[in-house]
Design goal:
The structure holds two protein chains of two kinds. Chain A is mostly helical. The longest helix of chain B is centred in the middle third of the chain and has 36 residues. The chains are: A mainly alpha, B mainly alpha.
């Protein structure tokens, strides 16, 4: 409740929250809102010369090179983006939490090894790795999600590690330990709850990164495969045509930007609200 | 200092080895078959087997890996499957194009980022601050390929100020560098703003103000030099980011750098090139971090004395 109130006080965060809700609504209600079947190639969807129709009263945002309704495709594309955003980023945050907590809590060689591995992953060119994996595996929605999760967990792991290291040193953990609490109890009841704000913030900010990465992979033709609509592959399919039909690039492009921006704004606001040490700064 | 350097160099070599090992195993485990790719669709099983043998792909993973590492320590990245040329030669041929793009991109990032970040910090809490920070957010949220296509559409296709694609003259570099620069500037603006805000709260800035220095002089002489460290660190990170991240921009603008080399190699399952570019990018990330770490004490005497 407090969080919601604070968000409503910041105009940019409120804007972000509104856009996030609209995108979620678009994704859930896509079949109800969409004026046409997103995969149907319509006879009247192309001009007499066979070019895509510009935005107008019949086709709100115009049609694509195959005569499909762009607005309907973008509504269903919201599903793709959100599913990948939630699944890929959820996995990334889960891996990051697991690695970060384990490495931060366990001293000795096991913790060290995990952190060295994380350092190693930091030296990996993430985008290149994602492109290589996505291109050489048979692309599908779930493969794309996995690939994104595989490159995105590293940052979360680093942050969680630092926080866990700080928490382990605190007196209340020492007190708990001297009362005879086991590792499981300390981790679940005392360490994990303190990391919830971090998980929420990165869970939100990470969706922005994920949406952008999915769009990029799909734009290169190695992400979500047509005819399944995704904002990235709509642009991929029509980029050679973009001088004649720029709306095919710019409507989906604008939606990708707005969605990523919205999740970034909300995530940033959450970071300020949930992290008391940041309050009053900046 | 020297022992620190030696330790960091050993660490870097280990990280590079790790990146090589992981990439090698990943590429080996992926279902794509370079021999079949090279042989073409109509090739017989015998032809494919011959090619596989020729490339040494029929040997066990460990043998292949030892062979690769053996070459790597001598600076040999192997031979491209498709182009039959030394990978190191191919990479060196493409490197100048990517480095040019990188330098121009970072220059634009720093100019825009430092200007906007300082402006926001000096007007903290006011409208300009909020406007700049929101713009910075838009920058970091914008998909690279959309911005690239937008700039192409407006400045090349419609206005005709710059060529659509290609490489060679200054006008070719403007749009791709601007794409990288405009997007990256958002990060710089945010970071410079917080660095400048920190410096502005320092006593020596108050002293400078108290003795009547002009605002301009305070900013140029006292504030910016003290806010320069995070910028250096950021550039260090960027050097690495750019190497692995230019695939998209180079693809859109037809820029003949290592991103394009990688992209072509990925489509042909040309594993030695993919390995080579991945290692080059990892090396760039490591070097970038090293530069940032070792430049810091050179620039800031306070770090040197500690």
């Amino acid at each position: 409740m407090r969080v919601l109130k604070e968000i409503c006080r910041q105009p940019t965060a409120l804007f972000g929250l509104a856009v996030v809700l609209i995108v979620i609504l678009m994704a859930i209600a896509a079949p109800l809102i969409a004026p046409f079947n997103p995969d149907e190639q319509m006879f009247d969807g192309l001009t007499l010369e066979g070019a895509p129709m510009p935005p107008g009263s019949q086709f709100l945002l115009g049609t694509d090179t195959l005569g499909r309704d762009l607005f309907s495709r973008m509504l269903f594309g919201a599903r793709t983006s959100l599913i990948i955003g939630l699944v890929a980023n959820g996995i990334a945050v889960a891996i990051g939490l697991f690695v970060g907590i384990t490495a931060g809590y366990m001293r000795g060689w096991a913790g060290n090894l995990l952190m060295r591995f994380t350092d190693l992953m930091m030296a990996f060119p993430a985008l290149l790795l994602a492109i290589v994996l996505a291109a050489l595996l048979k692309p599908s929605l779930w493969i794309v999600a996995m690939v994104i999760a595989l490159v995105n967990w590293v940052q979360v792991a680093r942050i969680v590690y630092t926080e866990t290291r700080g928490l382990v040193e605190r007196d209340f953990i020492l007190a708990e330990r001297s009362l005879g609490a086991g590792h499981g109890r300390i981790l679940l009841l005392h360490i994990l709850p303190h990391l919830v704000p971090t998980a929420i913030v990165w869970g939100t900010l990470g969706i922005a990164t994920t949406v952008l990465l999915e769009a990029t992979l799909s734009f290169l033709g190695i992400g979500v495969q047509p005819p399944n609509p995704s904002w990235g592959n709509i642009i991929f399919e029509s980029q050679s045509y973009f001088q004649a039909a720029p709306w095919l690039v710019f409507f989906p492009g604008a939606v990708i930007l707005l969605t990523a921006l919205a999740f970034n704004l909300v995530g940033d606001a959450l970071r300020d609200i949930l992290d008391p040490t940041q309050r009053g700064r900046g | 200092m020297l022992s620190v350097l030696a330790k960091r160099l050993v660490q870097s070599a280990l990280i590079l080895f790790g990146v090589a090992a992981i990439t090698f195993v990943l590429l080996y485990a992926l279902p794509a078959d370079p021999a079949r790719m090279l042989a073409g669709r109509s090739a017989t099983a015998q032809t494919v087997a011959n090619i596989r043998h020729e490339l040494g792909l029929d040997q066990p993973l460990l043998v292949q890996f030892m062979h690769y590492i053996g070459g790597l320590v001598q600076g040999d990245l192997g031979r491209s499957y498709a182009q039959k040329t030394e990978v190191i030669t191919l990479i060196f041929a493409r490197l100048p194009a990517t480095l040019t793009l990188m330098a121009a991109g970072i220059l634009i990032e720093v100019i825009i980022g430092v200007t906007l970040g300082t402006l926001a910090a000096l007007n903290r809490g006011r409208f300009i601050d909020r406007a700049v920070m929101t713009t910075a957010f838009v920058g970091v949220s914008a998909p690279q390929f959309v911005v690239a296509l937008l700039l192409l559409y407006v400045f090349a296709a419609t206005l005709g100020w710059f060529p659509m694609s290609g490489y060679g003259t200054l006008s070719h570099v403007v749009l791709p560098a601007a794409t990288l620069g405009i997007l990256g500037a958002g990060w710089y603006a945010r970071m410079v703003r917080s660095a400048v805000v920190d410096v502005l709260n320092q006593d020596y800035v108050r002293t400078a103000r108290a003795k009547g220095l002009s605002q301009r002089r305070i900013i140029l002489r006292h504030v910016l030099p003290n806010a320069v460290l995070p910028i250096i660190a950021m550039i260090g990170i960027d050097i690495g980011q750019f190497m692995g991240g230019v695939v998209v921009v180079e693809a859109v603008y037809g820029w003949p750098g290592i991103g394009q080399l990688a992209w072509q190699a990925i489509q042909q399952v040309d594993i030695p090139i993919i390995m080579g570019v991945t290692l080059t990018s990892a090396l760039a990330i490591i070097i970038g971090n090293l530069i940032a770490d070792f430049l810091a004490p050179v620039i800031d005497p306070r770090i040197r004395s500690n």
